[in-house]
Amino acid sequence: MSCDQNQLVNYIFKLQPIARYMVIFLRAWSQKHGLSRCFRSHIFILLVIFFLQVQGHLPAIKDLQTDLVPNVARE
User: Fold this and answer.
1) Where are the transmembrane segments (predicted)?
2) Cα separations (Å) of 28 from 8, 9, 32, 50?
């Protein structure tokens, strides 16, 4: 699952390159203010993606998944 998540994040960074810089900024800001222990890195990625979606700069994930076959491991 983590490989698929990384592919999605990389795809989103290609769609909106500023997203990568926003995540880097948030990580540095959290370290400067002593918050880096409270938040994991993926939280900043999710925050940036959500912000850009709300602002209309990124499509919703469901729109990106239109007509895709689910890729979920079955046990």
Assistant:
1) 42-61
2) 23, 19, 6, 19
40, 26 Cβ separation under 8 angstroms: no
pLDDT in tens, 25-42: 999 999 999 887 888 878
Cα–Cα distance for residue pair 66/75, rounded to 1 Å: 25
Task: Render the burial of 54-67: b for 16+ CB within 10 Å, e for the rest.
Answer: eeeebeeeeeeeee
Q: Where are the domains of the chain?
A: 2-64
CA–CA dist 18, 26 (Å, integer) = 12
CA distance 22 to 4: 22
